[in-house]
Amino acid sequence: RKKAPNAEDIRARKGGEPLVSLTAYTTPMARLMDAHCDFVLVGDSVGMVLHGLTSTLGVTMEMMILHGQAVARGLEKAMMVIDMPFASYEEGPAQAFRNAARLMAETGAGAVKLEGGVEMAETIRFLVRRGIPVMAHIGLTPQSINTLGGYKVQGRDDQAEAVLADARAVAEAGAFSVVLEKVPQGLADRITAEIPIPTIGIGASAGCDGQILVVDDMLGFFTAFKPKFVKRYAELGPLAEAAIAEYAAEVRARTFPAAEHVFADQAPAKGSRK
Ligand code: KIV
Ligand code: NA
């Protein structure tokens, strides 16, 4: 059994075999992906995917810690990275360190991820110099939805230089990798070629050093909306609903439970499992 990679192992994968990652929020889902992913992200997307929030802004430290602990129980081979939730790091480096240290100590995560480029470089440098590996996240940063004005592509036309500057700033500050979300393909390839740390694409380019998707999106469990960059590898939502509908019909028809699901009044003979 290979042991889980750490942040420096991930950094060393720059330019090599693509890094594979997904989000996870629960133990059973973490177990399913453990052998297939290099790292698993406990994303703050948990707020929208599992808690019914309309954005990630309402996600709390407590939610991240509970889901992080659950995911950790399901992982042996993959590294765990955990998102810093909105308002847990933006005030400054000291606040960021306090909350990042708590997330790592209470969940066992090997790194934190936070959103922001040039404006977060000082905070990233502060954390990394004090022992906290940081994965950056630039391009579309959902915690800034209210100032971005929508979930649109980031870095087209004359916006490209700003996203490139963000990529350079987080790499220079010591981030061990960076998520590029909803960045146009050519720009994602240019960033990947220019910076010395792995780029992890989501709605970016197959040329990135790795890819990530929200697991409930790619399995077809989360169907409230489907961004263009999501590929549905399965349609488990409709499959689950069909199973629930069948159960409901059988209960109403008294065909469930059947003989094999109920217990006899007489104790079974020794050696029998009934
Ligand atoms: O929270 C999340 O799921 C993420 C990934 C989409 C990168 O940040
Ligand atoms: Na996130």
Tell me about this structure.
By secondary structure, the chain is of the alpha/beta class. Helix content is 37%, strand content 14%. The protein contains eleven helices and eight strands. Strands 1-2-3-4-5-6-7-8 form an eight-stranded parallel barrel, surrounded by five helices. α9 links the parallel β6 and β7. The longest helix is centred in the last third of the chain and has 17 residues, at 236-252. The mean pLDDT is 96. It binds 3-methyl-2-oxobutanoic acid and sodium ion. The site of sodium ion has 4 residues, from loops. Pathway: Cofactor biosynthesis; (R)-pantothenate biosynthesis; (R)-pantoate from 3-methyl-2-oxobutanoate: step 1/2. Belongs to the PanB family. It catalyses: (6R)-5,10-methylene-5,6,7,8-tetrahydrofolate + 3-methyl-2-oxobutanoate + H2O = 2-dehydropantoate + (6S)-5,6,7,8-tetrahydrofolate. The active site is at 181 (proton acceptor).
Features:
274 residues, alpha/beta, TIM Barrel, 8-stranded parallel beta barrel, 8 strands, 14% strand, binds 3-methyl-2-oxobutanoic acid, binds sodium ion
Main β-sheet, spatial strand arrangement: 1-2-3-4-5-6-7-8
Helix content, binned percent: 25-40%
β-strand percent reads: 5-15%
Structural class: alpha/beta
Q: How does CATH name the architecture?
A: Alpha-Beta Barrel
CATH class: Alpha Beta
Question: What summary fits the major beta sheet?
Answer: 8 strands, parallel, barrel
According to CATH, the homologous superfamily is: Phosphoenolpyruvate-binding domains
* Structure summary, number of beta strands: 8
Q: What is the string of helix and strand elements?
A: HEHEHHEHEHEHHEHEEHH
Number of helices: 11
Ions and ligands: 3-methyl-2-oxobutanoic acid, sodium ion
Q: Report mean pLDDT, rounded to a whole number.
A: 96
Distance between the termini: 38 Å
Work out the count of structural domains.
Answer: 1
| CATH fold-level label | TIM Barrel
Low-confidence region ranges: none
Q: Return Rg in Å.
A: 22 Å
Global shape: elongated
